[in-house]
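ok so for the tutorial part 2 we go from a plain amino acid sequence to predicted structure tokens. step 1 is just haveing the sequence, like this:
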Amino acid sequence: MRRITVYCGSSGAAAPVYLDAARETGRTIAGLGLSLVYGGGATGLMGALAAAAPSARVWFSLGEKIPGDGVYVRGDEAHYRQGRYDQPLFPLDSLPLRGRHNRENAVAAAAVASACGVTPKAIADAVGSFAAVPHRLEQVATLNGADYYNDSIATTPERTLAGIRSFQEPLVLLLGGRDKNLPLEELAQEALRRCRAVVIFGESGPRLEAALRQAAKGSRDKGARIVRIATLAEAFEAARRAARPGDAVLLSPACTSFDAYDNFEDRGEHFRSLVGRYVKEAQPSLP
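step 2 — the prediction. this is what the tokens look like for a chain of 287 residues:
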């Protein structure tokens, strides 16, 4: 049985303590006979880890340059390179999932599969058949021309930013839950720039609203309409009223669920049920 470990990281500079940790990790795995698949570049953390581990190395990147064999992107197509061999694998647009992060995941998976000898056709077929995992940019339904998405797993501002950036359509964004006291400035600025409306709910509502109002003061654009209410059920109703045909209504809360739910799955299931109930009301002929 062949064992493969995947490392994902930045190619940028890193503090010496992290570089030392990467080198130590590389030395630890050197004797285990692993094939190592790296995301990032040949410098920084990934470079230090690769240099310390003499195992087989395979790289992946959404860019055109990788420091060795692996999967990279040329134009809009993923390629596998091994020495002089260069084989197209799949167009990025064939991936049914939204978001740059999902494209990175697909390229990483393709690198692992290629290292295991899986054929390009099998890789392309697998990528084309990927389905959204529940609560992760999961499309729930289309109502009155607007698409509703459940991204309840997004419990940090960074994850919500990734969700927002997965869409080109105008957004109605639902934010809220229990605050992790993480920085909100970048999220607030992006939400104001990209969203038609931001509906805030839950325990973190006052802090989220304050961040959005502060960001609006420094913005030249009119920005999103900001609405703060108490519960997810009320937030759904407000989002439904704000949405227009062609919009995406996105539950991507940037906070944990623990103010009202046991976990993010329960929150996502509640959002699904709210959408489903409205679908039945709007289209009573459906089962």
